[in-house]
Q: What sequence folds into this?
């Protein structure tokens, strides 16, 4: 029996373990060392430079510029996305009333989530296009031609325009997530509240929100990770421009590595990104901790 | 609308909601929570915001470049199907589509096979190092892919896998393993042990027990993991961008992003819109067909991951 066991365990586990070790664990482990070198991609030329890369990072204005944009996204994305998603989820579920056309809305709102971020980016590049784009066309049609802009070419609007696309894509997903949470709340809580004369708003703040807090927490961490990454959408829509006005850390890292071949320095940026992501997740968890309500 | 509220079998609440929801709905005074006009306006506006860009894209795909520039708001004068032919052949959307199909078919198969085998062992067998291996897989969920990017590029290059189908397939599979193994391990743990034991008593080998008995039982879990990984792998952008430099091998999202830059210069806008539409339609079809499963697969993934 014992031998039989290992005759199964080894061949079942080995392929996954080998592949994972070689292509995931090994690169991850290596990166902590590469970050401490001045590697430019030629194997022979790899000098250990200690923490020099990180010293350079702290003084790199382009890194701070990119990080500032990630920081802005970190505030804007969760606030806007979660507000809209919670509002819609509440409209569809709380009080147990079906909204006319609810399933239609649900299908429509969720759809952007299934599309690739890169494809969504290309689509919205056209929407924002200064001459043939839908955005400017719409403004002109409703008589607000004065508000027309070159959305992605204007340093003031580029980052906001990109962020709006991510909100557009994410709202439906978090709405469905919250709806699942709200539906697991016993209906008797709401019935009791209605008998006590509570308004819809009170019920939202006193019943719904506290009881879906676990879902909100998960959503905050997810959106935090999205805000710290943000690579694909920026790379596809603006390449960080104009003049780095919508640059983010991940894209700066990609450029540093694959355009300028400064692999050591780029990896140091990657390591800093890891620590930021981990810190953020832990912070979110600690700051949003509430007593768990069992029901 | 009020009557409808009482019996909404298709309403979003109907699926997971206990029967009491439906009952409560009937009893509730409509006034308590009347959906105000404001909320209806909000819902309609968001629906328009989602549908409009997509509808506009499809409409524009049928126009000529002239029309795109000079009458962006009118319906196309004639339906120019040739835009789609041009996108499929000249703009290589067909080639990109095929590349995506090959890579994702391969990586999805490998992901499901390798992760279900590993997850089964981790869930059902006690052996030295089981915990270490399980947490090693799990740790992959914590790290951003960016951290690995540079070393990964060189590992793949040194293995001679840069810009190859099998290279991408192996990398996609490797990066799908942590979540899949995590999900399937907890799934296998929920399955009853008696059936497998009975199979062994009846003389089936351990591997036959897995493939003939356990895998079929695990089908719902495999479907969830499959959907989750299909979308993730089909929509992957950063990995092919770094590891797949050969233009003939571009996958769909990568190729389209490239075209968007290139066609802009050549200003063959109509082909680009057609290409975008071609890319979007299969996803839309899959979504409409499997909407519920997709939704639950994705949200369950988020809550577990």
A:
């Amino acid at each position: 029996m014992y031998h039989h066991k290992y005759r199964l365990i080894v061949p079942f586990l080995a392929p996954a373990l080998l592949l994972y070790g070689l292509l995931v664990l090994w690169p991850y482990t290596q990166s902590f060392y590469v970050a401490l070198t001045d590697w430019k991609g030629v194997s022979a030329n790899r000098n250990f430079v200690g923490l020099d890369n990180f010293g350079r990072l702290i003084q790199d204005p382009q890194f701070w510029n990119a990080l500032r944009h990630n920081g802005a996204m970190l505030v804007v994305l969760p606030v806007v996305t979660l507000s809209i998603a919670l509002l819609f989820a509440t409209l569809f579920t709380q009080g147990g009333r079906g909204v006319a056309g609810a399933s239609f809305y649900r299908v429509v709102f969720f759809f952007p989530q299934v599309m690739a971020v890169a494809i969504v980016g290309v689509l919205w590049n056209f929407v924002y296009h200064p001459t043939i784009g839908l955005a400017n066309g719409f403004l002109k049609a409703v008589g607000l031609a004065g508000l027309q802009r070159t959305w992605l070419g204007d340093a003031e609007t580029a980052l906001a325009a990109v962020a709006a696309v991510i909100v557009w894509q994410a709202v439906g997903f978090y709405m469905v997530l919250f709806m699942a949470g709200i539906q697991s709340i016993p209906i008797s809580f709401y019935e009791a509240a209605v008998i006590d004369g509570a308004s819809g708003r009170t019920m939202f703040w006193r019943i719904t929100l506290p009881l879906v807090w676990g879902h909100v927490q998960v959503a905050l961490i997810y959106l935090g990770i999205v805000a710290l990454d943000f690579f694909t959408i920026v790379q596809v829509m603006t390449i960080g421009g104009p003049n780095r006005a919508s640059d983010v850390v991940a894209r700066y890292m990609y450029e540093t590595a694959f355009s300028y071949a400064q692999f050591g320095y780029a990896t140091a940026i990657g390591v800093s990104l890891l620590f930021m992501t981990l810190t953020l997740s832990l912070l979110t968890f600690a700051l949003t901790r509430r007593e768990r309500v069992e029901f | 609308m009020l009557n409808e509220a009482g019996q909404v079998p298709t309403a979003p609440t109907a699926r997971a909601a206990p029967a009491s929801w439906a009952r409560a709905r009937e009893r509730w005074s409509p006034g308590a929570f009347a959906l105000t006009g404001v909320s209806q306006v909000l819902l309609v506006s968001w629906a328009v915001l989602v549908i409009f860009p997509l509808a506009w894209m499809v409409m524009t795909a049928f126009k000529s470049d002239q029309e795109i520039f000079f009458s962006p708001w009118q319906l196309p004068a004639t339906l120019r199907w040739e835009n789609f032919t041009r996108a499929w052949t000249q703009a290589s959307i067909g080639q990109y589509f095929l590349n995506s199909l090959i890579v994702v078919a391969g990586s999805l198969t490998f992901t499901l096979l390798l992760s279900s085998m590993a997850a089964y062992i981790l869930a059902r067998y006690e052996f030295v190092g089981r915990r270490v291996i399980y947490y090693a897989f799990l740790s992959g969920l914590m790290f951003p892919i960016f951290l690995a990017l540079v070393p990964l590029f060189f590992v793949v290059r040194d293995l001679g896998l840069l810009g190859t189908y099998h290279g991408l397939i192996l990398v996609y599979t490797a990066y799908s393993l942590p979540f899949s193994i995590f999900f399937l391990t907890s799934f296998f743990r929920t399955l009853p042990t008696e059936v497998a034991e009975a199979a062994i008593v009846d003389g089936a080998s351990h591997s036959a027990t897995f493939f003939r008995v356990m895998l079929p039982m695990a089908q719902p879990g495999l479907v969830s993991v499959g959907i989750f990984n299909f979308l993730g792998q089909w929509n992957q952008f950063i990995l092919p961008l770094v590891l797949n430099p050969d233009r003939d091998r571009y996958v769909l999202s990568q190729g389209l992003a490239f075209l968007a830059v290139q066609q802009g210069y050549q200003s063959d806008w109509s082909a680009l819109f057609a290409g975008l539409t071609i890319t979007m339609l299969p996803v839309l079809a899959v979504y409409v067909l499997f909407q519920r499963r997709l939704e639950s697969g994705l949200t369950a993934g988020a809550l577990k991951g």
